[in-house]
Amino acid sequence: MEADVPGPSAFPGPSERAVCGRRGFLLAGLLGLAGCRQSSRDGSAPATATVGRAEAEALLEARSRAVLEHDAERFLATVHPDEPGFRARQEELFTALARLPFDGWRESVEKIEGSLATLRLAYRYRGFDTSDVVHTTYLELGRAGGRTLITGDGGDLRDAPEIWADPDVEAVRGRSGLAVGTGPLKQVADQLDRSVPAVSAVVGTGWARRAVALVPGDADRAEELAGGQPLDGIVAVATATRNADGSPGQARILVSPESWPKLSPVGRRVVLTHELTHVAMESAGDDRTPLWLVEGFADHVAYLDTGTPVVSAARELAAEVRRGELPARLPSREDFATGSPRLSQAYQEAWLACRMIAEEYGEDRLLRLYREAGAGSERDALREVLGTADLTGAWREYLRRELG
Ligand SMILES: [Zn+2]
Description:
There is one protein chain. The protein is α+β, with helices and mostly antiparallel strands. The protein has helices at residues 26-29, 53-68, 72-76, 84-98, 185-203, 219-225, 265-280, 291-303, 310-313, 315-322, 343-361, 363-375, 378-386, 392-403; strands spanning 102-113, 116-125, 133-144, 147-153, 170-173, 177-181, 211-215, 236-242, 248-255. It has three domains: 20-31 and 170-285, 3-Layer(aba) Sandwich (Glutaredoxin); 35-39 and 46-159, Roll (Nuclear Transport Factor 2, Chain: A), CATH 3.10.450.50; 288-404, no CATH class. Helices cover 40% and strands 17% of the residues. Helix 5 packs across helix 7 and helix 11 crosses helix 12.
């Protein structure tokens, strides 16, 4: 038997559990951070471009085609030969990009000020992204021998962080999962393959049924990809890139390189199934559905059929209940905030509320409640779907029964 028999170490501990924080738009939020260097011009006169836009566009088109066709020579032919340090970094970048399964990768000119080109990078992963992921990037352009060439990066103007900034990046593709990074890619891709059917069994098949996971190799890269916030014990977080019009774009699951290896196989299953449920329910960018439903539903799906005893998965809450301390109300949005003193208990309370609804009313009604509470008010949804305006009494009784 593999280690799928649950034991005490099989469950995420308080600091390792599937806390996800629902930090929607994290990656996309970085778009706005990138433009902090002031132009050297005072803005009173239009910038005089030393490089023509048409030339720059042609250069970028050749460079983008070289990426898609894995043509290193043509890629490096766009870089100035007298910039050896920059050229070496571009060679590394090309090697990294060549390992990733792009369906599209295209840089184009947003604007040119002097020698600085502000670019729009649009890319998508083959078989996974259904629309372009768009970032702002920067390059310095110059002329040599009558030609326009790339002479450097944006200096202080940093490109939006991407996983391929790590030169050792690789991709592992499963049936339903694409894992990109330098961490345990195969393990993550395999688990995504197993978790997708588990999510579909509850929420149905009306979602993409695939996901891209970013698996960086160290905490610094993870923090950068998380928008500059340390993951601090969070194992994984579901995010969404942002489309040009501000709407949520492609789903990404960011996996913490520090917390992931501490999990047992069951713990890893629970964490990724939880995050995939968020992907399926489009939680990143959903500010309307009550958090106890969002997080409780994700844990409900994640723990189904794991054989995990309730008192093990909810041990902090169980300890309180055994002491006679029953929570007075369902957890609020604040209870799920990072640093909340009863964060673990908030997840456990939410999970058991959803588990109770599934047991007493059925999975279908739990799913309907989720959708209706996101479209209107929680109270109306409870009354409409479950025929009660308040679950508190029944839920507290359920906690006493399951954990007491
Ligand atoms: Zn979550």
